[in-house]
Amino acid sequence: LVLAMTLLLVFGETRRDPEFFPAMWIWVRRCFVATIVISMVVSAVLPIWEPHIDVDGYARYRWFAVHPIPVGGMTGVAILMLMGTKLGLSDRTIGRVWRLLAILAVPALAVALVATRTRGGLLAFVFGALVLLALAPRGPAKRLGTMALGVIVLGLTMALATPAGQQVAERVLTRGQTTEQITSLSQRTELMAIAGDLFAERPLFGHGYIMAGPLFTTYFEWAGDGHNVLVEIGVDMGIAGLVVFLALLAVSVVAFVRAWRSRRSSALRSVAPEIAAMFVLIILMGVISPGIGGHVGYEAVGFLLFVTFADVYRTSTRLEAGAAAKSGLTSVASR
């Protein structure tokens, strides 16, 4: 309820003043990145939380007692936000010291993301970064980002050819799992089969919000949730929930694409690459996590923020088109 009311306020204020969203986004970006970095520092200084040990006997990075999957997702969003200061909406009000700290935070967060050993998080971040780079305006930052991407790919390729690189790749990509476990997405395909039976029991409205976890734990002790956004929503809220989710997804994506392709001037265009990159990461994270269907967290905030942004972005381009047309008619009439 708090999230919905907040986004409605953001929606109304941005409709009234399109400059509001970029100004708000700068502070959202600052606060989110600061929260992630502070969490990392506190967990490093106060190591009182038990490490998360995987089946291969090695730890997976996390803050406090948060599961590595959401840690990987939030870390990926934080990196995209820092990249967005150069490829999206710039933050010129911060001093040189803070800019230097932001630059240094990127490799630290990248190492943390890899250390979570979250394969889905890594893949989601890569696609999000590619979207950010593709939508970024042409200029030195985009050229530098493209060159950096090429250097990273080349460096990783060369590193994988070494014994040490192969060992790191095995720890991150296989995590001691068998081929069968990997192809089953860590037994998620088995959960999907069970979800089909549970969905058939109550197809219209489901078993109730956040009920997938308790139901799945009767089959697998580790299955505290649906481990997939469609599974989570289908079991919890049935067809009604799936229709709402997919409708929001389709309508917002269409609105965003139309606004972006319109090429009309808008105060929101500078924010669009970052919002789209974050949205892609969150949607792909939904393949391995309950996403917006689970507990309200960064996925729900990011998803609904994209829905809100897509609507006001599309509206702003229409208003600009109407203003341009009105200005043209006035000019013709004056002549």
Would you give an account of this structure?
The chain has 335 residues and is mainly alpha-helical. Helix content is 71%, strand content 1%. It contains 13 helices and two strands. Strands 1-2 form a two-stranded antiparallel sheet. A hairpin with a 5-residue loop joins strand 1 (52-53) and strand 2. The longest helix is centred in the last third of the chain and has 37 residues, at 298-334. The radius of gyration is 22 Å and the shape is globular. The N and C termini lie far apart (54 Å). The mean pLDDT is 89.
N- to C-terminal separation? 54 Å
* Spatial sequence of strands, sheet with the most strands: 1-2
Write the element-wise H/E pattern from the N-terminal end onward: HHEEHHHHHHHHHHH
Question: Which spans of ≥5 residues are poorly predicted at pLDDT below 50?
Answer: none
Would you report the number of β strands? 2
Share in β-strands = under 5%
Largest sheet: 2 strands, antiparallel
Query: What best-fitting shape do the alpha-carbon axes yield?
Result: globular
Helix content: over 70%
Number of helices: 13
Q: Round the Cα radius of gyration to an integer and report it.
A: 22 Å
How much is the average pLDDT?
A: 89
Structural category: mainly alpha
Q: What characteristics describe this protein?
A:
single chain, 335 residues, mainly alpha, 13 helices
